[in-house]
Amino acid sequence: MPQLKAKLFQKADTINIERLLPIAQSIQRLSEIKLASVVQQWPSDSIQNIDDTMRQTLANIQMPPAQKGSIVGIAVGSRGIDRLAPVVIHCVDFLKSSGFDPVIIPAMGSHGGGNENGQKEVLASFGISEKTLNVPVLANMDTIQIGAISPDFPVFFAKTAIEVDHLVIINRIKSHTKFSGPIESGLSKMLSIGLGKATGAGFYHQKAVSDGFFWIEDIAQMIINDYSIIFGLALIENQHGQLSHIEAIPGKKIISREKELLLRSKRLMPSIPFDQIDILMIDEIGKNISGIGMDSNVTGRHRDIVGNIFDRPHVKRIYVRNLSKKTYGNANGIGLADVINKRCLDAIDLQATYMNALTALSPEKAGIPIFFDTDQQCLAACLHTSGKVSGRSTRLVWIKNTGNLQRFKVSEGLKLDIEQNPSLSQMTDWSPISFDAHGTILDY
User: CA geometry: angle at 328 spanning 351 and 341, to 5°?
Assistant: First the structure.
């Protein structure tokens, strides 16, 4: 892997921008683009007190008798969920007060490089560790086949999940980036794929190519029938990316209630309030933001063996400036971009990225896009290949990431759209796009 990166960097250094006439010409046209900050008006209904909300919802759960030494495995995933650590901490305390011995079981398929240490590191980055919770983290990757949903479709389950007396599942309910259905990303997916570890996740993604994703519900139901799932904690975030709903669901009712909560979550999903976009500039992508780095429900773009998606908004060119720090080099989804800069390229951990992409049967999402040294060069490449002959009419949207869409920047080409949308407020005057001496775009 290091040798491969060295070759990529060497090739990047040999690009002679001055000889790329389309880039040089488009750099001049960038000066025609003017930007302004806008804000989307959303209601603020975030949970103010996690402990109070947790106490209220857990009061509705009928707990099984706690025998001495009864162990409850708390299955936790790897996404950047708002205030996940306080939720898990309260859950740990609740189980202890109920007479159980809780342990943490990472339920994230092949994430974290598909190994024990990597999965512990991912959880620790969200404040979930043996040190912060004072409970064991059982990150062993071994699985056992517990049954099958058809002769050629075995079901794998984490050995650590089988060895505990009971399970609690914690996850966010949200739209999936790859498919649409009554069950998407949430508790059922964590039971099936997350606790299937790398072995199960890899096999299930292969089956999805021919069979779709119906099996998420089937596998979850099998596990719920055969194992003691005390409850699932369903988390929903609002448009601000803040926790707005926490609900403890009895184990036997997880699937039916999750279907209802998914509809609620979809209504709260943030979006870019424009359709036709020439250039979407994204400051960062990462696994802590979306499973594919940048949420396809926001970008309108997805490439996958089970089908490509080009939905609203219709974006001509996507430019990614960097990886988030909390993705730890995992650049899965980078292949959805058209252009990246060398800073972003330097941040990629090919081992983690390839492991994720291969497990998900999605090598296209680990593909390295065209790249240049500076923001100026990258934007010029986007402008030229968008087919725009005028910088001033360019419809450019600049966001931090696909999970942060309340405040962002747009170009003057979207002025009329802003004026016609009552949920948008322009916060600054139009100012020419500008760069420093090194070609880095200046924030304002």
Answer: 85
Q: Which residue has the tokens 């790859």?
A: 178
The C-alpha angle 350, 17, 354, rounded to 5 degrees, equals 10
Domain count, the chain: 2
Contact assessment for residue 40 and residue 370, using Cβ atoms and an 8 Å cutoff: no
Examine the fold and report which residue of 201, 232, 267 is the final residue of a domain before the chain moves on.
Answer: 267
Q: Which of 208, 239, 267 is the last residue of a domain?
A: 267
Confidence of residue 184 (pLDDT cuts 50, 70, 90): very high
Domain assignment of residue 443, yes or no? no
Shared domain check, 108 and 215: yes
When computed from its CA atoms, the radius of gyration of the chain, rounded to whole angstroms, is 23
User: C-alpha 122: how far from its chain's center?
Assistant: 13
Render 289-358 in DSSP notation, one character per residue. T-TTSS-HHHH-EE--TT--EE-SSEEEEEEE--B-GGGTT--TTGGG-SEEEHHHHHT--HHHHHHHHH
The boundaries of the domain holding residue 245 are: 50-267
pLDDT of residue 292 exceeding 70, the answer is yes
